User: What shape does this take?
Amino acid sequence: MTGAEIAVVLGASLLGAFVKAVTGMGYPVIAIPLITLVLGIEDAVVIVAAPNLAANLILCWGARAGRAESRDLPLLVGWGALGAVVGTFALVRVPEDPLLLVLAATVAMFVVTFLRSPELRFSPTTTHRWSPVVGGVAGLMQGAVGVSGPVVASWMHGYRLRATAYVFSITTIFGASGAAQLTLLAASGEYTATRAAVSLLAFVPVLAMIPVGTRLRERLDGPAFEHAVLAVIAGSGLALVIQVVA
Assistant: This one.
């Protein structure tokens, strides 16, 4: 791996980690498309997996005060972990472009829905019924293409939680599916010496950006935070399309 390729990985991680610290999502969906401009999709997924898990754990712990407001997490986490197992095995067997296009279309549908109905809120009955499906799909996408943020973030946006509860919820889900994904990647021998070394280097920008983004998030609670999340969700859909085209 060349110095220029490593620089792209670090730059993508810097940008992705900042957005993730602010909104709870965004690292993989920003970093992976950028990294795939110079490396393969498998390299990008494997390199990002470990620092992304670390970011989720740190952000989840920092937002633990929002735990009481969260709901449906056992369903989302359990089915997400199961989906991640299936998706990780599919990583080298299933073409990623169709999956990414379906994911981008789903994100676009959510964004349009929320723009047309800004006060839309999912009822507890609805979220409880559909959380296993959402969790399973999110885990599948996390394992197969390294990106589950758009699914989880779009779904949780409909809960209309406060910023702390929202970040706690989505980082808990991401952390569970990410841990399952990382375990399987390591067990299946995906971490070559080069991939492992670059993944460790990516921890530096990730850890540097988390406190910066967290401080900004503390100033964005309420409508400003919801708008920021919706913007990241929309941007993630565009990034997925760019990834396919590139």
